[in-house]
Design a protein that fits this description.
This protein is of the alpha/beta class. Helix 1 packs across helix 2, helix 1 packs antiparallel against helix 4 and helix 3 crosses helix 4. It is globular, with a radius of gyration of 21 Å. Strand 4, helix 8 and strand 5 form a beta-alpha-beta unit.
Length: 249
Amino acid sequence: MPVPEFDALVFDVLGTLVDEPAGIRAGLRALDPSLDEPRVEELLTLWYRHIEQEQRLILDGSRPYRTSEAVDLEAARLVAAAVSVDDPTSVAALARSARRLPPWPDTLRGLSRLAEHHPVIGLSNAGRTALLDINAHAGLRWHQALSAQDARTCKPDPAVYRLAVTASGRPPERLLMVAAHAWDLRGAQAIGLRTAYVHRPVGDPPTGADTFDVYADSLTGLADQLERARPVERAQPARASATGRLGPA
């Protein structure tokens, strides 16, 4: 499948560029060093169940929009209560672990390569403050980073993807959305963005019904594909000047 023409890249952040579960696991271990790995995974599941539930309620209008920082704090309180920790400082530290997320091993190199040739926009469900901290901690390189907070909703609501359309000044079909989550790419497709799926261990893989424009097994693999698809820049032929010397045509 040929790579579609596009003017800018739009990246999901959580799970696609940073390993979100790894950061939260580190926070859980710091909260209670006695936790064994099965218990850590149980608590991580509890955390994500709360986040997904609250996002669904926001999407269907059953609760007002709240930033990811506020919802992370709710999840931290829930998880801390499950291990009988009620110290506010410890709970706050656990909530902040959702902003201290390591990049995947190929993220920084791949993002840097892509940013050499294309405008790169981050588009995340993380709130503005959380997104700032995530970018700083992981060392992500952006030309612009957009938070769903500006749309007062969360992906896959079309209003979030329209933030990238507005910020870029390009029509949707000239943007290539990159994500490790098929649900995210379906949301982007719904308003006309082109799509690129990048495999991650924690992502949401495509189903047989999905048809995305590009598939890659890593971010550097995506960079390889896009670089191969770039038009070859031909050198201009030399021409003789009035002095008889050769110069560019």
